[in-house]
What does this fold into?
Amino acid sequence: MTSTASLHEFCARRGDVATPCRHCGAREFNICQALDAAQQDKLLALATRLQLGKRERLFAAGDPARHVYNLTEGAVSVSRSLADGRRQILGFLLPGDFLGLEPGESHHCDAETLTEAKVCRFERTTFETFLQDNPEVALRLLRIASSDLAQAARHELLLGRKTAVERIATFLLDLRDRSGARHLRTHPLALPMTRSEIADYTGLTIETVSRVLGRLRSGKVIELVGASAVRVLDDEELERLSGAS
It folds into this structure.
C-alpha cells in the first residue's frame, strides 16, 4: 500500500502539488468535508494532484470519461459547442466544485481553466469503489449534485425569461454569493472570464454585455476594476435590477 509520505515524494517528482486533504483550502466545501483524518488519507492515496495553467483544457466533449475531478483552487468553465459552431457556457466552477462524473463512457462537455488551477484527479472506477465503501462521501456528493441541479435551473430561467439587464445583474449576484460562500474575495469581485464568455453564459452578445456593464457603471451600481474585477456599490439596486422577488 502506498503511504502518504511516499505519495508526496512521487507527486513531487511528477511536479504535482500534494497537500493532505485536511490542509486543503476547499475542504470545507467539497466532498472531503464528510471525511475523518484516516479517510482523508485513504482518499489522498487515490488522488493525483495536478496544477494547471491558465486556459488549459481539462477534458473535451467526446474524450473518454476515465477520471473525475475535484477543483481545489482556481476557476473552470464548462461549455458545450453547438453544431453551427456557437458555444454555450453551462457554468463557471469554483473551489469545492466536482466535475467529470457524467453518465456514459465519454464526456458530454468541455472543461477549461479560466485561471491557474489545482485539481484532485481520481480514476473513475477506483473513486466509485471508494464511494461504495464510504457512503457518507456519496451522500455529500449527492448534495453537491442537488446544488448543481438548482444552479442549472436558475441558469435556465436566466436564459429563458430575463432581460439583458436582469441577466447580467443575476450573473454578478450569483457569482458574488458563490464566491463569498467559498471565502473568496468579493470586494472587488474577480471576473476571471472574458466578456465573450459572459456573453456565452448569459445568452447575449459581447456588445450587449459591455453595454449593460457600462449602464450599471454609469448608474453607480457597480464599479469596473480593470477588465477582470467588479466592485458592487449598490447591492439593493443590483438585486432590484436582477428581477429577484
Remarks:
- Residues 7 and 13 are 10 Å apart (CA to CA).
